[in-house]
Amino acid sequence: MKTPLQTSPDGTQAHSESQAGDWNFCPRCSHRLAWREAMEDGGPRLRLRCTACDFTHWNNPTPVLAAIVQCSDRGDRVLLARNAVWPNQFYGLITGFMEAGETAEEGIRREVQEETSLEVQSLSLVGVYEYQRLNQVIIAYHARARGEIRLSPELCDYRLFEPHELRCWPQGTGQALAQWLRQQDIEPRWLD
Ligand SMILES: [Zn+2]
């Protein structure tokens, strides 16, 4: 599945930038959407609403799954990967969009397998992080995995790091990495 990490060098990214203004037509009846105020539970709210039916474009955040992949058959080193379209040398977590009909844990097992071919042996939740610029919520796991590494075409390279070698970044997935390092009694260090 398309990784969320496409244009951004910082470990998070958009499939669509998912701003409410991107939508023009009602997906239910195909009439125009317009910014309209209506009374909601929390009071009057301005949202994109259909001009013909009662459809509201809520523009809820999209769940993105992320994994700190620790390779138990490679000395417990952590795999970071580089997206083929990133312009710089940034390496980030494995990420992907959660799909309909799967749990978050099923989704991140699938993403790790699709993107690296590694088999996830165990998962633990690190935390949930917002990424408001892209209207995403990031559900981050630590994944123990093993097997042969074969990258999907979306990824062009990977590197294996001892945990104490890792450098974190300020965006959501980097915060997850920092939190996991603290859980390992490692004070996170940050990219310049
Ligand atoms: Zn409509």
From TrEMBL:
GO biological process: NAD+ catabolic process; NADP+ catabolic process
Entry similarity comment: Belongs to the Nudix hydrolase family. NudC subfamily.
Coiled coil segments of this chain: none
Record keywords: Hydrolase, Magnesium, Metal-binding
PROSITE patterns referenced in this protein's UniProt entry, alphabetically: NUDIX
Cofactors named for this entry: Zn(2+); Mg(2+)
Presence of the UniProt keyword Disulfide bond in the record: no
Originating species: Sphaerotilus hippei
GO MF annotation list: metal ion binding; NADH pyrophosphatase activity
GO cellular component: cytosol
Reaction catalysis annotation: a 5'-end NAD(+)-phospho-ribonucleoside in mRNA + H2O = a 5'-end phospho-adenosine-phospho-ribonucleoside in mRNA + beta-nicotinamide D-ribonucleotide + 2 H(+)
Domain Nudix hydrolase: 61-183
Lineage: Bacteria, Pseudomonadati, Pseudomonadota, Betaproteobacteria, Burkholderiales
Source organism superkingdom: Bacteria
Protein name in UniProt: Nudix hydrolase family protein
